[in-house]
Write a structure and sequence with these properties.
Elements (H helix, E strand, L loop, with lengths): L6 E7 L3 H12 L6 E8 L5 H11 L3 E6 L7 H8 L4 E4 L5 E2 L3 H11 L4 E10 L5 E4 L5 E4 L7 H4 L9 E4 H4 L14 H11 L3 E14 L12 H17 L6 H23 L5 H12 L2 H9 L3 H20 L6 H10 L12 H6 L1 H8 L3 H14 L8 H8 L12 H6 L1 H9 L2 H13 L7 H14 L3 H17 L3 H13 L5 H18 L4 H4 L1
Helix pairs in contact: 1-2, 7-8, 8-9, 9-10, 9-11, 9-12, 10-12, 10-13, 12-13, 16-17, 19-20, 20-21, 21-22, 22-23, 22-24, 23-24
Length: 530
């Protein structure tokens, strides 16, 4: 090892007093001591400033910088101005290193002529006390011509700026402003900028970095620009890979998986925010209708896309239920994008129904209109939630693309003739027509008659069964006549006469019409009405 090479270490501090001594001590007590430590007091107000001053007074390797107010976006310029090291690394002010962090990474970098060397890390989750690991079992040396071929193997180590040692000349090639200011995800964008100028990198098997994960950190707080960052990071890595040629399907699917998991995190942040239900829905709508989201959910081959999509749908349903009777637009359009077959059936009136019925929810998640229809008809048959959730309207919406059924929202008809409805839904139109004819001839249609006859007439027309069509029209006219709906009866009779229908039923219909009309209108003639 060349002990003459200086390593520049950087830490930016804002109100982390309780962790600060451990962090700074872990740097100053490194087994490799040839370092300069740039410490920035970024407007601390919790007593961290005093800790920093005390350490700076004791160790001449510290360069202490003080900002009066907390600010962002300045640190790279500061490194350009102050750093004198051959290598660069950083550590967050609430994290700490193992004592041989610098010695081991520097040795590997020198021996293998590396631009970047990464170590594994321990995640310390402050809210649960649990730990997690990110590391590899065998060293991974990656040369530039492999950057596009083994992306999934090294990607996770380039999601963060910490946990790596970088040659200063590589760091200095990434000019300030190359990466836009981001609410989160800036580490990943910075790391891939470094990769653009690197030729050799290595992931070591060591686990030398300790990272504290806090539930109240920036990455867990809502920001309206967060989703834009998810999209930016995906496109940025695609751009990086494109410099090596066409992006492979494997890499694209891998990044779609990463993006899908990012959407899980982003939507959880939205759900846990103080946004109103309508504002949450607006955020979900933006995410769900973005072309990248739709493409990822369609093309990604692993469970991440299914998990992400399922989570998003559940959050949309919860926000929709909380809307009560407010604007429904974002809810319906979001669900339609995510579930092309069944999404429109969801509304603020029934979102809670899907959350309460796990089987109905599963059918919705699978975008299965057949199962949803069957379950809705079962609800109608049992008279469960029919009015509360406006289930007949839900049935009508499910059948919106079926010209024979799209107008039917008659609760009585759906309850009594569910079997016939399902025949038509399955395309068993001739069977349905025969059964309906039998019921009419046996005079067994006593309720839901108008809807029954309109469907019967439509079937006769579609199947080109003229006798059934005429028979249905005659039955409908008689129904209107019995209900004293003279105008509607007259219209149907006119249609029959235009068709040239002349039979005993038609004669009796005319006679009954004239008698009813005269009774209702005194001496006026039915003919003048017609």
């Amino acid at each position: 090892m060349k002990k003459s090479e200086t390593v520049t270490v950087y830490t930016q501090v804002y109100n982390t007093k309780q962790y600060l001594e451990q962090c700074i001590s872990s740097v100053l007590s490194q087994t490799y001591s040839n370092l300069e430590y740039i410490l920035v007091d970024n407007g601390c107000t919790d007593g961290s400033s005093e800790v920093l001053i005390e350490f700076a007074q004791k160790d001449s390797r510290i360069k202490l910088i003080r900002n009066e107010k907390n600010q962002q976006g300045f640190w790279k310029n500061l490194i350009f101005q102050l750093a004198t090291g051959t290598y660069f690394t950083l550590i967050d002010s609430d994290d700490w290193w193992e004592p041989d962090y610098l010695e081991r990474l520097l040795t590997i970098a020198q021996e293998n002529n590396l631009d970047i060397v990464c170590t594994g890390n321990v995640f310390h989750f402050s809210n649960t006390g649990k730990q997690g690991l990110r590391h590899i079992e065998r060293p991974l040396l990656v040369t530039r011509n492999q950057f596009s071929t083994i992306l999934p193997l090294y990607y996770q180590f380039f999601r963060t700026s910490w946990g790596k040692l970088v040659r200063m000349d590589i760091f200095q090639k990434v000019m300030p402003g190359a990466v836009p200011n981001m609410v989160y995800g800036g580490d990943t964008a910075d790391s891939f900028q470094l990769l653009r100028y690197s030729n050799r990198i290595e992931i070591d098997t060591s686990i030398l970095y300790h990272y504290r994960a806090h539930p109240k950190s920036v990455s867990h707080q809502y920001n309206p620009e967060r989703f834009e960052t998810d999209v930016y990071l995906y496109n940025d890595v695609i751009d990086f890979l494109s410099s090596f040629g066409p992006v492979s399907i494997r890499n694209r699917n891998f990044l779609q998986s990463v993006y899908s998991y990012a959407i899980i995190d982003t939507t959880e942040v939205v759900e846990n925010s103080n946004l109103s239900p309508s504002d949450k829905l607006r955020e979900y709508h933006t995410i769900a209708t973005h072309p990248l989201t739709l493409t990822a959910y369609q093309q990604c081959k692993d469970e991440s896309a299914v998990k992400s999509k399922t989570g998003l749908i559940l959050k949309v349903l919860k926000a929709g239920e909380a809307l009560k009777e407010q604007n429904n637009t974002d809810l319906r359009s979001t669900m339609q994008k995510l579930l092309p077959q069944c999404g429109l059936v969801v509304s603020v009136y029934n979102a809670g129904m899907f959350l309460k019925d796990s089987k109905l929810l599963q059918a919705l998640l699978q975008d299965d209109p057949d199962v949803i229809l069957q379950m809705l008809l079962n609800y109608v048959e049992k008279n469960q939630g029919v009015k509360k959730y406006a289930i007949p309207k839900m049935v009508q919406t499910i059948a919106v693309k079926n010209p024979l059924l799209c107008q039917i929202d008659d609760t009585v008809f759906l309850r009594k003739y569910s079997r016939i409805y399902q025949m038509v839904w399955r395309g068993e139109n001739f069977i349905a027509l025969d059964e309906m004819t039998g019921l009419l001839l046996e005079n067994k249609v006593s309720s839901g008659q108008e809807t029954f006859l309109q469907l019967y007439i439509s079937l006769g027309a579609v199947l080109e069964q003229a006798p059934a069509f005429v028979f249905g029209k005659l039955q409908l006219a008689q129904l209107y006549l019995r209900q004293n709906r003279m105008q509607e009866c007259c219209i149907v009779m006119a249609e029959l006469e235009e068709m040239g229908v002349e039979n005993e039923q038609m004669d009796m219909l005319r006679l009954s019409f004239d008698e009813n009309f005269s009774q209702l209108n005194g001496p006026k003639k039915a003919a003048s009405f017609k």
